[in-house]
Structures are given as structure tokens and as C-alpha cells.
Amino acid sequence: MKQIHSVILLSMLAYTSHRAQAQENDPLAEAKTAIAESNAVYFESFVKNEPSVFVERYAEDACIMAPLMPKMCGKEEIGEFFRNAYDNYGLRNGRFITTAIYGDGKEYVTEEGLWQSFNADGELFDNGKFLVLWKKTDKGWKMYRDSFSSNRN
Length: 153
Hints:
By secondary structure, this protein is α+β, with helices and mostly antiparallel strands. The chain contains 5 helices and 6 strands. A 6-stranded mixed sheet has the order 2-1-6-5-4-3. The longest helix is centred in the first third of the chain and has 24 residues. It is globular and about 45 Å long.
């Protein structure tokens, strides 16, 4: 039994060491983790109707560049974007599918992907693609420029 425990322990140590080495070799590891964590709670802001959660995903000097709208910059306008999406479009949930992350992982990285938006009944009402320029701030990785387009007319 002691041998089995020793083998399991050695396997776990080897895996942990391999994972740590892989992260050291990937300069984007920190940004990828932060982006995944931010994306995981982004649409929760709509589920819970909590604009502050949405706004906190963005840097102080961020801008959203949505289709058919003027560029919206700063926390106040980003909050207005949330209210408009929630109140006028009925956005209640969604998801991001990150397809690539580019950059050196120092100050800025770019995320490329797909998105889906759902209404209160859980029905897909829009989908498209996005590019987000992320900025490393003193509060961690935040969205700096958020640009997206719909796949629908």
C-alpha cells in the first residue's frame, strides 16, 4: 500500500512540476487565466442584473466599439452600454468562445473569439465574433478596447 501511495505522490509531483514549467514557457499564461476568469463572470452580470460586475471587467480608460453605435468610453458610458443591452435588448446571458490569444503577455494581449447572447427564456437572439485588446493594469488584466460584430443582419 505504501508503494501505491509513493507512486501516486511521485506522479502528482511530476504533473505539478510539468504544469509549472509549461506556464513558465508560456508568456501568455497569466493573461489567459485572467481572461478566462473575467469571461466566466462577464455574462453573470446580466443574469444577476449587476452592472458593476460588467463595468469591472474594463480598464478605467476602456472603450466599447459596438456595431452601428458611436464608441463608448469610460466607466459611465460602459455602464450605459450595460443598461441599454439589459433594458432595451433583453440580454440576460451569453457566452464567449475564445479561439486565440495573441501578444507578448507584458502590457497588452488580444483575444479573438465568438460570442452568443441569450434572452430571459434562454433563447439565442444574436451571435457573432469579437476582438478584445486587454491591458495589464494595477488591478490585473482588464478589457481596454472591446470590438464586436453580429453574424446576423
